[in-house]
Amino acid sequence: MQQTAVYGVDDVSYQSAGGIEGLRRLVADFYRLMDELPEARALRQLHGESLTLASDKLACFLSGWLGGPKLFSEQYGAIAIPSFHAQWPIDEALSQSWLNCMAQAITLQPYDPAFADYLLRQLRMPAQRIVQASRNRHGIAGQ
Questions:
Q1: Do residues 82 and 123 lie in contact, with contact meaning Cβ atoms separated by under 8 Å?
Q2: What are the pLDDT digits (tens) for 102-130?
Q3: Which one of 94, 115, 125, 136 is CB 3.0 to 4.6 Å from 16, fit for a cystine?
Q4: Is this structure's pTM higher than 0.85?
Q5: Where is the signal peptide, in residue numbers (predicted)?
Q6: pLDDT tens, 60-111?
Q7: 3-state DSSP call for residue 7?
Q8: Which residues of 3-35 are buried (b: 16+ CB within 10 A; e: fewer)?
Q9: Three-class SS state of 79
Q10: Are 131 and 142 in contact (CB under 8 A)?
């Protein structure tokens, strides 16, 4: 009897994303879209001119977050995603812009549709936490 892999268990999600090379492709498409889409302009302005470091950090973070090697902590140390991002005033609109770029980047990957849906659902959770942490720090009113 063959068992079905379950996303979120062991390294199933990491492997479904194509390992670190698959994550690097996802992140490259994500930041390219952020550069190109007019509706992502405000989000892009929060980043430096070069996206090289941000790209590496996001791919490394996603590696560990999806059950693969903990590359972020190995290379950059520990991070608490919501509190780190709270240094910027991130509201619902910026969060949605980030999610929209990621959703489009996900559709460009050769992911199984069930994994693509799972990944985007999972990414909504930290995006919501980042908005809340930013509200708490900057006094941004809830929407």
A1: no
A2: 999 999 999 999 999 999 999 999 889 88
A3: 115
A4: yes
A5: none
A6: 999 999 999 999 999 999 877 766 776 777 889 999 999 999 999 999 999 9
A7: coil
A8: eeeebeeeebbbbbbeebebbbbbbebbbbbbe
A9: coil
A10: no
